[in-house]
Design brief:
The complex is a heterodimer. By secondary structure, chain A is α+β, with helices and mostly antiparallel strands. Helix content of chain A is 37%, strand content 26%. In chain A, a hairpin with a 2-residue loop joins strand 6 and strand 7. Chain A is extended, with a radius of gyration of 27 Å. The N and C termini of chain A lie far apart (77 Å). The longest helix of chain B is centred in the first third of the chain and has 14 residues. In chain B, strand 1, helix 4 and strand 2 form a beta-alpha-beta unit. Chain B has one domain: Metallo-dependent phosphatases (Purple Acid Phosphatase, chain A, domain 2), CATH 3.60.21.10. The chains are: A alpha+beta, B alpha/beta.
């Protein structure tokens, strides 16, 4: 009995030692939070220091004040309303013509607003992309399709005076600049060139000619906030049921 | 749990024999080479500094200097470490607008990342910029479903790489997300997107045939979607050879790794750690050993929370 056991063990050892391979058997996981209380790596701090000094000198310049903390949420949020209003107003000034509606693509809002000073760096964080404000003359039927895409995505911010209700992932009860959407009318719509080029499933806009002046959305925001500050105001965007969920 | 060889030998009273027959493989050494610590990030989005102390939800979190210190501490305790990133290294702070990704890549090189894949935002400075910034990388850019032939990225990425970690042979492949409708054509500059499930399965099979003990997929597909869009969840269920998917794109903070069953009935783990370098994921794998042909394709992996730091 001992002999058989011995031979069996020897055989196992020989077999496993020739072509041993391994496979995952167990896993222990940890999701570490990178907190301020952790020590900093001095070599890394030295590596980023020259970049940080330059960045901070440009980005720490204060251009305005936010009245409150504003986070980003769907279907409507203050940050989104501010951006849509800014693009409509600044586009009207820059292009010198009436704009019916500005839409901000929701996934393009990359940060939040904190109560207190608004720096150049904050504008960069809100709008890191080098996207441009462009205008398009959009027929009512196409505008309906475009707003349906925004509704299916949970709702994108609209400029003041426009609203819609999301029902079954479609845009309903659409008001454009104070009036019900007319499918046969043509509207001047301000969008980012990313959206106007068909980004985020907005193919219906792709073929419509764009009016562009190479106007960066980030510059529009900086100029809007700077003008607000110059007139003695602070940024205080509101929610007013521009985009809501229906039953 | 699979039977550990040492336990088996002890139980049969043949431990002494083992040390005489296999002098080159003492039990202690064999144990240490069967453990692998995987550290990972995704969607760091140019977060070089921690979030500013401005009262926001994430204030004080993230930053490359504390992350580098934590990684260094883990490296001092663990012999076999793989440090991986699942893409969207670029875009999100002024660092990217001004320096186009140089400090991000240099920081990753300093932290000794082993590999990264490409996210949609890594195209944001244009494909040529991405290729240019890779000169600062000492790690490979791994992706098997973007065809860069005829572009500035041609020859600057790898479909996969095999890493030797002690006795272990670890295969790493990478996957990128559908670019159409997400990244403008002028930025993708001729990049061709290939079916990620087909590319991953073909690449993983190749890695398995080359004798990899574990196959890791770095994925920027996103964890899952309400619509029928390809995701890590779909990939996991449609895969045959992948053991672990390190995910990204959807900025999801997983409470724990998700477990799926692949086409062979085996376990596939998926993990994702949010965004902005707020978290560092750590996965400590223990391996069982055996003859290659005896190892079951439908093997299971026992998952538990790491209790001892």
């Amino acid at each position: 009995m001992f002999r058989r056991k011995f031979l069996f063990a020897a055989l196992i050892i020989l077999l496993t030692s020739c072509t041993t391979s391994y496979q995952p058997a167990s896993l222990a996981y940890a999701q570490y939070r990178i907190e301020k209380t952790l020590p900093s790596d001095s070599a890394m701090t030295a590596l980023i220091q020259p970049y940080a000094v330059n960045i901070n000198s440009v980005m720490n310049r204060v251009i305005g004040t936010s009245a409150n903390n504003y986070s980003v949420s769907m279907p409507e949020c203050e940050v989104g309303n501010f951006m849509a209003d800014c693009f409509r107003e600044m586009a009207e000034k820059k292009f010198g013509r009436k704009v019916d509606l500005a839409v901000m693509n929701r996934s393009g809002i990359r940060s939040y607003l904190s109560k207190g000073p608004i720096t150049v760096g904050k504008v960069f964080e809100l709008m890191p992309f080098d996207n441009l404000v462009v205008l398009q003359a959009v027929k009512g039927t196409v505008l309906q399709q475009f707003l349906d895409v925004t509704a299916a995505d949970g709702g994108w911010p609209l400029s003041r005076g426009s609203s819609l209700v999301i029902r079954n992932k479609k845009a309903t009860d659409i008001i454009i600049n104070g009036k019900a959407l007319d499918l046969n009318a043509t509207y001047i719509v301000a969008n980012s060139d990313y959206i106007a080029n068909g980004g985020s499933n907005c193919d219906m806009l792709k073929t419509i000619p764009q009016i562009s002046m190479g106007y960066l959305m980030r510059d529009a925001m900086t100029e809007y906030i700077t003008a607000l500050t110059a007139s003695g105001k602070i940024l205080e965007p509101i929610k007013e049921n521009r985009v809501s969920n229906g039953n | 749990m699979a039977i550990n060889r040492r336990t088996f030998l002890t139980n049969t009273g043949a431990a002494v024999l083992a040390s005489t027959v296999l002098p080159a493989l003492p039990a202690e050494a064999a144990d240490s080479t069967r453990k692998l610590t995987i550290l990972h990030t995704n969607d760091v989005h140019s977060r070089i500094d921690p979030f500013p102390m401005d009262g926001s939800r994430n204030q004080g979190l993230g930053g490359v200097a504390p992350r580098a210190a934590l990684i260094e501490q883990i490296r001092s305790q663990e012999e076999q470490v793989l440090l991986l990133d699942a893409g969207d290294i670029f875009q999100g702070t002024p660092y990217f607008n001004v320096y186009k990704g140089e400090p991000e890549i240099k920081a990753m090189t300093a932290m000794r990342y082993d590999a990264a894949t490409m996210g949609n935002h890594d195209f944001d400075g244009g494909l040529e910029n991405f290729a240019t910034q890779l000169q600062h990388a000492s790690f490979p850019l791994i992706i098997c479903n973007y065809d860069f032939s005829g572009t500035v990225m041609e020859g600057k990425s790898k479909p996969y790489q095999i890493f030797r970690k002690g006795d272990l042979k670890i295969g790493v492949l990478g996957l990128g997300i559908e670019l159409d409708g997400l990244v403008p054509d002028n930025l993708t500059a001729g990049t061709r997107y290939l079916d990620p499930v087909v590319a991953a399965n073909t690449t993983a099979e190749k890695l398995r045939k080359e004798g990899c003990d574990m196959i890791i997929c770095l994925s920027h597909l996103g964890d899952k979607y309400s619509e029928n869009k390809v995701s890590d969840e779909i990939l996991a269920k449609e895969s045959y050879d992948i053991d672990l998917i390190i995910g990204g794109h959807t900025h999801r903070f997983f409470e724990e790794p998700r477990k799926y069953t692949n086409k062979n009935g085996g376990d596939v783990l998926v993990n994702q750690v949010g965004f902005a370098g707020i978290q560092l994921g750590r996965l400590d794998y223990q391996f069982s050993s055996g003859r290659r042909k005896k190892l079951s394709k439908a093997h299971t992996v026992v998952v538990g929370k790491k209790t001892r730091e």
